[in-house]
Amino acid sequence: MTPEYPIKQFFDKITAAWGTFGADLRVGPKLEGMMRAAGFVNVETKRFKLPIGVWSQDAREKELGVSFQMVIKGALEALCGAIATVEGWSKGERVEFTERCDRAI
Asked: Is 6 in contact with 102 (CB distance < 8 Å)?
């Protein structure tokens, strides 16, 4: 994703916003180490792409994409509200950013 793409901006901004509260939304790459540190021994890491929407030709990716799209659409307004609060945006700025993200999804 390019830096100008609204969804890239959304994920960067929501990660930073939640970070102000001490939450790490980019925990995925750390999970294997965390599991091992907790005492698990048969830990296997698998990485895969998680598309947004139905664009993928792969049936499994398409199914995941539809589900992920529904999750994001359902939470978009609330999450953009969190971003706006942390960033100090006006209501108009929040609405404009939310609408750009919604159109991109």
From this structure: no
The HSE-up count of residue 24 (CA atoms within 13 Å, CB side) is: 6
Q: Please tell me the predicted confidence (pLDDT) of residue 59.
A: 92
In residues, how long is the chain? 105
d(CA 67, CA 69): 5
Tell me: the pLDDT tens digits for 32-58?
Answer: 999 999 999 999 998 888 888 888 899
Percent of the chain residues past pLDDT 90, beyond the cut: 69
Q: Are 52 and 69 in contact (CB under 8 A)?
A: yes
- Map tokens 């698990």 to a residue: 40
Q: In which element (H, E) is residue 96 found? A: helix 91-104
Give the H/E segment covering residue 50. none
